[in-house]
Amino acid sequence: MISPSPFTTDAFEARVAGTTAHPLIRIRGTLDIGSIRPVLQLVRTLDLRGAQSLTMDLEGVTFIDAAGLRVLTTSRQRARVFGCSLVLSNPSRSVRRLLDLCGLENLFHVESGTSYGILYPNVA
Question: How far apart are the first and last CA of the chain?
Fold first, then answer.
């Protein structure tokens, strides 16, 4: 899998890894209006043809607002266009809280307790 370049600032990081069948985007830091553009670009540039799932590891998200929620819903829509599912892995407390407040906790497939450091060491 050819991975788009990671995007990193002092407050935010987004990296892509995984396989063609199971791409992974790991997001750390603040997911808000100031950081959504590079994440949306990563999602748009991923070749999801033949993918079974797109996983977003959200364990390191320290803050998320409505703009961050847009990233999640847009990613879900893009995954569905290619016939794969979006998995929110290890969502942080702030992500879970926003999904709950918006009544969207059942819209996404959520997995907890998955460690990607062993599977994809280049996103650690």
Answer: 17
